[in-house]
Amino acid sequence: MNATIFDLAIDFGYHDEAGPPDAFPVRVAMSWEHAKALADLLAENIQAYEKDIGEVRNFEEADDDGA
Description:
Layout: E1 2-3, E2 7-12, E3 26-31, H1 32-52, H2 59-64
Antiparallel strand pairs: 1-2, 2-3
């Protein structure tokens, strides 16, 4: 992730060991206002998922029990 006072960019992709280490197929750049809107939308969707399916564990919890 790269950030400035004006915007931020998040790199998404799959790193293939045979490919260059800095290759990312998708970079999503947005203003901080759009980032906050995205964060709110993600939080709403996670809450709905957890209500319907069950709690999503964070990475630390998943690592603690070997899952």
